Amino acid sequence: MAMRRGGTARLRVDPIDCRAHGLCQELLPELVSLDEWGYPLLADRPVPPELMAHARRAAAACPTLALHLLREEVGTGT
To answer: What phi and psi, each to the nearest 5 degrees, are found at residue 57?
Structure first.
């Protein structure tokens, strides 16, 4: 995902598709931890610029494609 200036991104997980493989946590431990059953717990903050490449890699490597990197535009919403 290409990031435009002024935007941020956050990780989201689709709980229906996730099968608790734990690969996301191995690839991005700075933003992903695992609960007692092995399901991801995501940091409630935007992905820092220095971790963006790692976040993209973690989302792309998810075996069930349950991890998503979603763009957030600054200044949108009310």
So the answer is: -65, -40
Q: How much is the pTM?
A: 0.83
Euclidean distance between CA atoms 19 and 34, whole angstroms:
12
7-13/40-42 β-pairing: unpaired
DSSP 8-state assignment for residue 22: -
11 contacts 31 by C-beta, under 8 angstroms: yes
21 phi and psi angles, rounded to 5 deg = -75, -30
Cross-strand bridge partners of residue 68: 12
Q: Residue 7 has what pLDDT? A: 75
